[in-house]
Amino acid sequence: MAEQGPLSGQKVGDKYVLTELLGEGGFGIVYKAYHLHLQRQQAIKILIERLFQKKAFRERFLREAQTVATLDHPNIIHIDDFGIESTQAYLVMPFIKGGTLQDVLRKQHGFLGLEQIAFYLEQICTALDYAHARGVVHLDLKPHNLLIHDDGRLLLADFGLAHLMKQGKVEGGSSLRFGSPHYMAPEHIRGNPERQSDIFSLGVILYQMLVGRLPFQGAPMEAIMFKNVTEWPPSPRTFRPELSQEVENVLGKALAKRADQRYVTAGEFLTAFKGILVRPTLSLERLKVKEVRANEKPDRENAAPLTELIRSLDPGREESATLRHKVVGDAKGHIWQKQLEPQHLGQSLATMEPIKIFCSYAFEDEKFRDEILQHLNWSSPTIWYDCKIPLKTDWFYLREKYLDEAHIVLLLISPDFLRSNYPNSLEIHRIMEKHSVGKTSVIPVNLRPAYGYWGGNPISGLLDSHQALPTNARPITDYPDRNRAFEDVAQGIQRVIQRVMQDHLNSTQQKMQPDKLLPLPPEPKVNSQPLLKIETISSPDLA
Question: Is 221:178 a contact under the CB 8 Å cutoff?
Fold first, then answer.
């Protein structure tokens, strides 16, 4: 039930009606509001009444509006309106219904994956560098002030404590001591913040995303501030042993007690963190690939996750004739390419163009993707493009490129997937047009119940026409035996793969001389061909 505040139901600026209370801070209170003329939802921040009576706070509120109005960046919230009335001042912004980064951390009940961290970190860093380049330091950077747009973008908000820099120094008086204690740099606590103070706050956020907790917690705020100045936080490897020393080194530099020992810019911080992700996290010599026949029970508990395999292989390096992996994207775009070539190909398959599968899914559904890959039998040369939704805006061209090349498009359906802008994107409209004329095959796979989210997007018709998997359109999570559900999904995908193979071979044979025609390969049966399995060899270095 929506929370009501003391101003709920009142009209502001003669055109905004305040509805539910969204949040309250030390200086302002935020309401959801309805714009009577434009008929849309807004978020309105109102200066607390007792502070409105003080000139210094009215000027600071106006400065916040003016500061944000000068910033035009896709990862910074913009200002729609500002007004001062006889008893209040207000600031109008878009209503962002996706919650905050704090909500994401709370929902995870722990740490985030390194790829997801890099995705969020990049957006924060680009926003910070943009603001810093224009002489603005935020000074209240924390997950609560990072809003999540419908398309997955992070939006930096709440510039109430932001100050301008002049000749490298932050201008201001006593207000420079205000902030959120857990995220305040030592020099900020002393009342002398600078640009690198935002880097320290970003380091605290990275710590949270890595281990699921704050560096210092449970103590009074005064004690937290004292520890930020005098103590180093516990090593993140204490809570997450699999993290590398390189991760700890990057984090340690961001959290340095002296500002001049931290990264100079947020971009430098980002580059250091992303540099860790492209290095192998497992030794190539300690990975082995073997075939598991249908009559053998796969040892999935000891199988390395495919995401770990992705991180472990050097881009472009061939590990074996069975598995070749090539990176076409990075943590920024979250598109990777995996090329599978069966060891014993007939002449017809050896000369055939690889089948290209483009798989899209929400961050939360990666485990379902892993299960589908485990159940598929790779009986033909295949390139698998993997795409986590959402993507950063400037990577849309890469997603569109590989989506357009795909013979088969898998859409792993869940509420998180359908809540994004992706199902209604121009790319999906185009791919559905190709599907309608038989130029590609779009297969929705129901992972989790998503009733109420289907309507209005171009893929909803596939569910209505019973083209979704599993074959009865029942979500995988509703199956008492999920293994049977994944087998059903694998069979459906492989039926489409077989049809695409036959179309390709028919096309190839039509171009060949009659005496060189090649026989069609037999239709693969589920679990009759070798399964590809990745295992790690036990080693202290991999523990």
Answer: no
Same domain, 387 and 325: yes
On whether the CB atoms of residues 76 and 146 are closer than 8 A, the answer is no
CA R_g for the chain: 27
Contact 216, 182 (CB under 8 A): yes
Q: How far apart are CA 357 and CA 478, in angstroms?
A: 26
57 lies in some domain: yes
Q: Residue 34: helix, strand or coil by DSSP?
A: strand
Give the number of other CB atoms < 10 A from CB of residue 381: 19
pLDDT digits (tens, 9 = 90+) for 191-236: 888 889 999 999 999 999 999 999 998 878 889 999 999 999 999 9
Phi and psi angles of residue 82, each rounded to the nearest 5 degrees, phi first: -150, 145
- Which residues are CB-contacts of 467 (< 8 A; sequence separation ≥ 6)? 443, 444
The answer to the question of residue 509 being in a domain is yes
Count up the domains in the chain and report the number: 3
In a domain, 4, yes or no: no
Residue spans of beta strands (DSSP E) within 420-466? 441-446
Sheet of 169-170, strand order: 136-137, 163-166, 169-170
d(CA 275, CA 392): 19
Cα atoms found within 13 Å of the Cα of residue 336, Cβ hemisphere only? 22
The type of residue at 521 is P
Q: Which two structure tokens, joined as six digits, stand for 134?
A: 């224009």
Domain assignment present for 1: no
- Looking at residue 540, the DSSP 8-state letter turns out to be G
15: domain range?
Answer: 11-94
Spatial distance between the Cα atoms of 197 and 264, rounded to a whole number of angstroms? 10
> Is there a single domain that holds both residue 244 and residue 316?
no
Q: What letter would DSSP give residue 111?
A: P
Q: Is 478 a catalytic residue?
A: no
Produce one character per residue of 466-492: b if its CB has 16 or more CB atoms within 10 Å, e if not: ebbbbeebebbeeeeeeeebbebbbbb
Going by the DSSP 8-state scheme, the letter that residue 262 receives in this structure is: S
Catalytic position from the list 81, 129, 140, 488: 140
| Largest Cα–Cα separation, the chain | 94
Q: Are residues 406 and 320 in the same domain?
A: yes
pLDDT tens-place string over residues 403-455: 788 899 999 988 888 877 778 777 788 888 888 888 899 999 999 887 656 55
Tell me 236's DSSP state. H
Of the candidates 94, 112, 138, which is a domain's last residue? 94
- The residue from 50, 69, 94 where one domain ends is 94
SS3 536: strand
Task: Indicate if 127 and 21 belong to the same structural domain.
Answer: no
Has residue 296 got a pLDDT over 80?
A: no
Query: Other C-beta atoms within 10 Å of 12: how many?
Result: 20
Residue 386 tokens read as 């993997």
The C-alpha atoms of residue 183 and residue 123 are separated, in whole angstroms, by 18
Omega cis (within 30) before 234:
no
